[in-house]
Amino acid sequence: MADTLDVKEAETYNGTEHTRAVKVYTPAVDIVEKTNEIVVTADMPGVDDKTIDITLEKNVLTIYGKVDLDVPEKYRASYVEYGIGDYRRSFTLSEEVDRQRIEATVKNGVLKLVLPKAEAAKTKKIEVRAA
Amino acid sequence: MLLSELAGLTRGGFAGGPYRWHGYDTIQNRMKQMQDEMQRLVSGLTERPATAREFPAINLWTNEEEVLVTAELPGVNAEDLDITVVGRTLTLKGTRGTTEEAKDDECCHRRECRYGNFARAIELPYEVDGQKVGAKLEKGVLTVTLPRAEADKPKKITISAN
Predict the structure, then answer these.
(1) Mutation site, B4, B62, B110, B126, interface A, largest A CB count within 10 A
(2) Interface of B with A in 87-106 (CB under 8 A)
């Protein structure tokens, strides 16, 4: 049945189609908001620093990870649980993020994005004095 | 979301039972593949990844000489992974430490990645030579190469003419 992986159809995403005939998956993410920054962790196995693309257009942050269709030769797929394909996910950022200082690292197929909060957006604690 | 989670629940969740080899084209195998495909399609539509799948997800490739098992293990270090082969069962065991934790005054908006311990047993289609098993972990993808045991390889029988 699933003899080869490369016969899969490319899916459309938000109405636009890809030029590469690969499937596009949504990576699992963790988003933790800290006092000074927002940390986004995305599971993207098969992706490294060279094949990942992060774009920020207006206030939409898009993560795109390209995965080589590394289908082993001379083997047949006897049992398939996960498909091989690219990753894409977009997030809308608030104005609070300091765009100049966004940092991204990839390790063991996991992307870590650190989005520092802009000075103005940091929470200020207001002291209440007893009168 | 609910659909994929329900489908995931029926399959045993996090530390699932051993995957059993049913041969190449049995009904169960086809059903499972269709179910997985549906789950993937549904999760793609709702833009949410499947959250309750068995971990790690594996693919199994075979030919006459070797079995190749690939698994998606994002964020797992090689030293935290334990691979054993006993008879026809391959076991993957390991742990993934958390990277970011929300403290008291911080908040967690999404929690979709898996952390903690995992274990999975996979039944192989034939006996393998435990001494020659090779494994590599690259970019969060594990590849285990398991050569078929000599004794188990198919023998070609020649018919002698009188």
Answers:
(1) B110
(2) 99-103, 105-106
A1/B58 Cβ within 8 A: no
**Contacts with B49 from chain A: Cβ below 8 Å:** 25-28
B33 close to B26: Cβ distance less than 8 angstroms = no
CATH fold of A24-118: Immunoglobulin-like (2.60.40)
Q: Which fold has domain B55-150?
A: Immunoglobulin-like (2.60.40)
For residue B111, the one-letter residue type is R
**pLDDT for residue B17 is more than 70:** no
B134 touches chain A (CB under 8 A): no
pLDDT category at B85 given cuts 50, 70, 90 is very high
Instruction: Please report the pLDDT score of residue A71 as a whole number.
Output: 77
Strand order in the sheet with B116-123: B81-86, B89-96, B116-123
Mean pLDDT along residues B129-154: 90
- Inter-helix orientation angle B27-45/B2-9, to 10°: 150
Predicted local confidence at residue B16, as pLDDT: 44
